[in-house]
């Protein structure tokens, strides 16, 4: 007697897009979105990992044919529906997308689809290098859409309370990553494309300048003050090349830069509740320094 394993059936996926909204199985999506929202929409992914080149996080729904490469799990600018194997994606889905797509009240057929741009998102075909046949439909943030940015959003006024004086810029960035992007208690939350649009002293062209640190962006993070009252909130640091802060500091980085290496453990003294650190941008002596201070220390 023989038993056969049944193939997993894809979760039914319905995508509905209009000028006002983008819904996936009735879950509203606004870019940038996050991992939890995509899980609510698509279900639990079958695999996660990192790209070979940029070390960016990758999320894959094998059965549903959905793929997402992002700067961080908390700041996701788009996802792709795979329709062909003519690509070289890292961690690519095993199946093609088989759900339904309704844009502007019309069923989308992949072969006949023309790119569209709505104020909140763009839908377009993706083609690998010189292949004539597209391999996916991409839903992504519309970076050309204009939104009103408060004139004072990125103006940093001196704090009216005591702030932490950092010795090491790399360590300060690791702290900002936790307080600004994970806990979201440090404001304003910095978004690179928004900052470039807001900045009026010169034109910042991210597509041209995003392969190296942009001076004005780096200066923002140097200038921002962290109040001493937030020091107790820091219990753990998880430093990774895919952290959202590094994607905002360097849009087209490959994950192995040394611009933000922590060179000293001296600033740990400001954070009495810091118990665990995982580091990737740090000099060797920093690991020994952290361990000597009784911190559970790991190298990524």
Main attributes of the structure:
alpha+beta, 19% helix, 15 strands, 300 residues, five-stranded mixed β-sheet
Largest sheet: 7 strands, antiparallel
**Gyration radius, in Å:** 22 Å
Which structural class do the helices and strands define?
A: alpha+beta
What is the number of E strands? Answer: 15
Gist?
The chain is α+β, with helices and mostly antiparallel strands and 300 residues long. The protein contains 7 helices and 15 strands.
Descriptive report:
The protein has 7 helices and 15 strands. The strands form 3 sheets. The protein has a 7-stranded antiparallel β-sheet with strand order 4-5-6-7-12-11-10, with no helix packed on it. Strands 3-2-1-8-9 form a 5-stranded mixed β-sheet, with helices on one face. The protein is globular, with a radius of gyration of 22 Å. The chain is α+β, with helices and mostly antiparallel strands. Strand 5 and strand 6 form a beta hairpin. The longest helix is centred in the middle third of the chain and has 14 residues, at 169-182.
């Amino acid at each position: 007697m023989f038993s056969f394993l049944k193939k997993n059936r894809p979760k039914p996926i319905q995508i509905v897009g209009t000028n006002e909204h983008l819904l996936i199985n009735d879950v509203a999506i606004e870019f940038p979105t996050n991992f939890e929202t995509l899980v609510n929409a698509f279900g639990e992914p079958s695999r996660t990992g990192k790209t070979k080149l940029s070390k960016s996080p990758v999320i894959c729904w094998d059965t549903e044919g959905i793929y997402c490469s992002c700067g961080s799990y908390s700041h996701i600018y788009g996802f792709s529906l795979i329709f062909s194997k003519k690509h070289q994606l890292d961690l690519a889905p095993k199946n093609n997308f088989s759900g339904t797509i309704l844009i502007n009240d019309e069923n989308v057929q992949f072969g006949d689809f023309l790119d569209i741009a709505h104020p909140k998102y763009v839908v377009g075909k993706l083609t690998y290098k010189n292949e004539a046949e597209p391999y996916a439909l991409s839903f992504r943030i519309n970076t050309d859409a204009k939104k009103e940015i408060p004139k004072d959003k990125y103006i940093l006024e001196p704090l009216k309370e005591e702030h932490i004086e950092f010795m090491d810029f790399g360590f300060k960035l690791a702290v900002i990553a936790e307080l600004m992007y994970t806990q979201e208690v440090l404001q304003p939350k910095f978004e690179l494309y928004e900052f470039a649009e807001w900045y009026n002293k010169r034109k910042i062209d991210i597509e041209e300048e995003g392969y190296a640190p942009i001076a004005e962006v780096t200066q923002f993070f140097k200038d921002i003050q962290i109040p001493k009252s937030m020091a107790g909130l820091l219990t753990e640091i998880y430093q990774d090349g895919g952290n959202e802060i590094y994607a905002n500091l360097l849009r087209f980085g490959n994950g192995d830069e040394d611009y933000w290496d922590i060179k000293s453990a001296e600033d740990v003294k400001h954070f009495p509740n810091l118990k665990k650190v995982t580091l990737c941008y740090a000099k060797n002596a920093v690991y020994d320094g952290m361990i000597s201070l009784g911190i559970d220390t790991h190298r990524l």
